[in-house]
């Protein structure tokens, strides 16, 4: 019965796939009742290692090759099927399971990148981190251990952190980020431009890349202000010597615009949706076309 309850909640949740805000609005009435069920299922998922990592390629525009991928977690539930991260990450962040889930994702992603390297394909893998993972005192040690265990060269790992994490005045987060960077692991700012007006964190943290949020990219080419903002972010990244990646690229005109203004990489459905490791490996063997 527990599982049926959770299952119903997830099926309801899936109806709204694609817009996570519904979780907090349309389903608010249900949330209190279904949350404990979902939480129980999530605990089991951690124990049974039900998480699978999907990969979305980042296309390097100047060379037309794929040099990096983003690792995106999926919950492969035995009865419910594939559950999207926006259905459970918020809960895992609330109840502390995100640490354990994050470690499983990191391990799989590093392992996979190591396998690609063994096959002669050098691919940088980017893993999303939540604030909580950085607040744990041993955040950097977890990363160092995982790199050691999997044998992945440090420069092939990158961590994606949102702006809001860097704006928290938390000395643990700050020292963990600096230690991670000292390992030679990259730090990328996710959803860049959506968080806060202050850019002062770019001075305080050893950032290596910016990811322009999808909300700016979707306005290209029609919205003059989105075009101007995207250009300004690219110019800023170039002058700060940061790599710049555009997220959520869906149209050829957007790719063309981004190439013209020297954006380094594009990620989005135009190139590929997130896919399982096997499918990504197949893609890597073929020329990119759109
Ligand atoms: P994100 O880090 O901003 O990841 C990008 C999201 O945009 C992914 O959703 C991806 O599938 C989607 N996307 C990619 N290209 C396009 C496009 O062209 N158009 C549109 N409309 N969407 C596109 P996904 O995989 O559902 O992940 C959602 C969010 O869940 C991620 O947003 C990230 O914040 C979080 N997440 C995913 N995996 C992990 C993880 O392992 N750990 C943590 N802490 N969070 C994760
Ligand atoms: Ca991300
Ligand atoms: Ca993002
Ligand atoms: Ca996002």
From TrEMBL:
One of its GO terms (molecular function) is cyclic-guanylate-specific phosphodiesterase activity. The keyword Ribonucleoprotein does not apply. Residues 35-288 form the EAL domain. Keywords: c-di-GMP, Membrane, Transmembrane, Transmembrane helix. This is cyclic-guanylate-specific phosphodiesterase. It comes from Aestuariirhabdus litorea.
